[in-house]
Amino acid sequence: MSEILPKGKLSTDLLKKIIFHKLGVENNNVIIGPKVGEDATVIRLQSKYIIVTTDPITGAVEDIGRLAINVNANDVGAFGVKPKFFLATVLLPVGSTTDDLKKIMTQLDEHAKKLGISIVGGHTEITDVVKQPVIIGIMIGETEKDGFVTSSGAKIGDKIILTKYAGIEGTAILAEDCKEFLKKFLTEEELNSARELKFHTSVVIDGTVALRSGAVTAMHDPTEGGVIGALYEIAEASNVGFIAYEEKIPVLEITQKICSKMNIDPLKLISSGALLITANRDKYKKTLSYLKDANIPATVIGEITDSNRKILVRKDGTHEKITEVPIDELWKALRICRGKENDE
């Protein structure tokens, strides 16, 4: 019997049941293919290795072009590789104007240039299938054989490091898309500081700097499902477990305030701008040192354990078992601020 699919990313179970065994022909040049916890594929092309990823932007409107570049660039950057080429499919609802299109393309152009990325193709369409703009991006990076790290290399005993803070991107999105709701609780200065976080959602430098330390075993970009989702995915990809501590996970005061007012968990809020890193337990301090020298905040939040334990220790001491990627709290927050908190 067919089931209704829930909102958000497909569950690990459905990926394994429906997706992963319907992938066309096998090719020996596919080094890393579709896998839980891996956000990009690695393809061997003679002496070069190509990192390719794709991601849609469906939960934001105001900064959709910037997010399309950064979210896709982050998936390549999380391999320790600099993104080079971008393609975009832009879907606009009926009634969109040329000014709407210009705004999106200006954002794509501006933020691609900031990261040294060339926009090399795509597709643009006006359709009544979408009710707000949607961008599906493809990002490509290029490296040498030993010039990347995946999400699946974490080893038992590795230290878990988080750069910057949990909930960065979610905070920026909510400050923009829910500003009328949040004005009841926040000052204009606080809203502005939250919106400014949109300029801190890239992890390309985080990833390339961390890789140079020589101690990193795996990296992952905490997008949908937040830091908790990324912890689960890196553990699944590596066939290990983890223990992480809520009290050690850095959360900005403005993020905490917004999440408190909207009754959402910042650790389950989309967190582009942060990078989850596992590093050898004997060498992890070298990774911290490299990041510090690059002025990138980094915090040890836990360690990798055996595959039977995926545990988040809450501030009150309770142990929360993480059994799947959580539905991102962004969706709940957007329903609240749009007056639809009781919608399913």
The biggest sheet, with number of strands, parallel, antiparallel or mixed sense and barrel status, is: 7 strands, mixed
Helical content, roughly? 25-40%
CATH fold title of the largest domain: Phosphoribosyl-aminoimidazole Synthetase, Chain A, domain 2
> Regions with pLDDT < 50 over 5+ consecutive residues?
none
**Tally of structural domains:** 2
| Total beta-strand segments | 13
Spell out the helices and strands N to C. HEEEHEHEEEHHHHEHEHEHEEEH
Instruction: Return the average pLDDT rounded to an integer.
Output: 94
Task: Supply the helix-strand structural class.
Answer: alpha+beta
Report how far apart the termini are: 21 Å
Shape: globular
Give the DSSP E fraction (strand runs of 2 or more residues): 15-25%
Number of helices: 11
Adjacency order of strands in the biggest sheet: 8-10-7-11-9-12-13
CATH class category name of the largest domain: Alpha Beta
User: What is the radius of gyration computed over CA atoms, rounded to a whole number of angstroms?
Assistant: 19 Å
By CATH's scheme, which homologous superfamily of the largest domain applies? PurM-like C-terminal domain
Instruction: Please give the CATH architecture of the largest domain.
Output: Alpha-Beta Complex
